[in-house]
Amino acid sequence: MANIAIYPGTFDPITNGHLDLIIRASKLFEKVIVGVANSPSKKPLFDLNERVSLISTITQAYSNVSVIGFNGLLVNLAKEHNANVLVRGVRAVADFEYEFQLANVNRNLYPTLETIFLTPIEKNSYISSTIVKEVAKHGGSVTDFVTPEIELALKNKFS
Fold first, then answer.
1. Per residue in 13-46, pLDDT tens?
2. DSSP string spanning 39-72?
3. Domain count, the chain
4. What's the whole-model pTM score?
5. Environment class of residue 59 by beta-carbon count within 10 Å: exposed (0-12), middle (13-18) or buried (19+)?
6. CATH code of the domain containing 41
7. Any catalytic annotation for residue 141?
8. Is 42 a catalytic residue?
9. Which of the following is catalytic: 91, 107, 128, 157?
10. Which among 51, 100, 110 is positioned nearest to 77, based on CA atoms?
11. Is there a catalytic annotation at residue 18?
């Protein structure tokens, strides 16, 4: 079986924590697909095409990483791309409890799909897209939380 992993998320916006996990996953797996969920119910700041474009820009140095947008069930995306692993980030116990439930549902729907949990490096352990958006919205510096491309995109959204 191919060693293909999917790292799914809304990534609204992608943070340094997300990018760190993508880079680390790219060293573990033959191919990493960053699956950007449309998630209209979350009312994202950036539309799906913007998120895919931004992530593609900041991951272009990693030849085994590709970025695609998707709708629907994650397991269907995994089947479509012959992925056998989901990569999920967990920052705290609350994240783990939710991710554990999702892993069990995904395993039920697609028994050969494994979920691998990666923890962020300490300096990224408290970063979330929600916090980044709030800081940027109120004019605070997000330099330590996102890449320069994402910082500029946030400034443009909130100017």
1. 999 999 999 999 999 999 999 999 999 889 999 9
2. -GGG--SS-HHHHHHHHHHHHTT-TTEEEEEE-S
3. 1
4. 0.95
5. buried
6. 3.40.50.620
7. no
8. yes
9. 91
10. 110
11. yes
